[in-house]
Amino acid sequence: MELQSNIPEYLRAIPQAYYLYLSATLFTIGVLGVLVRRNALIIFMCIELMLNAVNLLLASFAAYRNDAAGQVFVFFIMAVAAAEVAVGLAIIVMIHRNTRSVDVGLLKNLKW
């Protein structure tokens, strides 16, 4: 089966599997960062890295299939990521004011 003629030539030069490998690598780095690191800022950055890996994969699938639905999902994921950053940074600032640290290990002291 031949590729559709309206896919840009530069996308044909890069196989779709490369986008999948890059996205999987970025997502894995993000997951490892969330599981290993204790700094709340690093954890939020790793969550953003995971969201960007999914965005890359959705955009590449949308481009290869010539369907805009993947790009619409990317837009919504970016909106959720922006809201997450705003709320997350506000929470981190409040935690830093109370504990003078952004170490998530110290949050167990905030229990009832």
Overview of this structure, please?
- The chain is mainly alpha-helical and about 110 residues long.
- The protein has a single domain, classed as Helix Hairpins (Orthogonal Bundle).
- Helices cover about 75% and strands about 0% of the residues.
- It contains four helices and no strands.
- Helix 2 runs antiparallel to helix 3 and helix 3 packs antiparallel against helix 4.
- The longest helix is centred in the last third of the chain and has 31 residues.
- The chain is elongated.
- It starts with 8 loop residues before the first helix and ends in a 13-residue tail after the last helix.
- The mean pLDDT is about 80.
| Count of individual beta strands | 0
Structural class: mainly alpha
Poorly predicted parts: none
Supply the CATH architecture: Orthogonal Bundle
Q: Kindly, what is the distance between the CA atoms of the first and last residues, rounded to a whole number of angstroms?
A: 63 Å
Shape by Cα distribution: elongated
Please state the CA-atom Rg, rounded to the nearest Å. 19 Å
CATH topology: Helix Hairpins
Provide the succession of SSEs. HHHH
Query: What is the beta-strand fraction?
Result: under 5%
**Overall tally of domains:** 1
Relative helix content: over 70%
- Kindly state the mean pLDDT as a whole number? 82
Query: What is the CATH domain class?
Result: Mainly Alpha
Largest sheet descriptor: none
Topology:
Elements: H1 9-13, H2 16-36, H3 40-65, H4 69-99
Helix pairs in contact: 2-3, 3-4
Keyword list:
112 residues; mainly alpha; Helix Hairpins; 4 helices; 74% helix; elongated
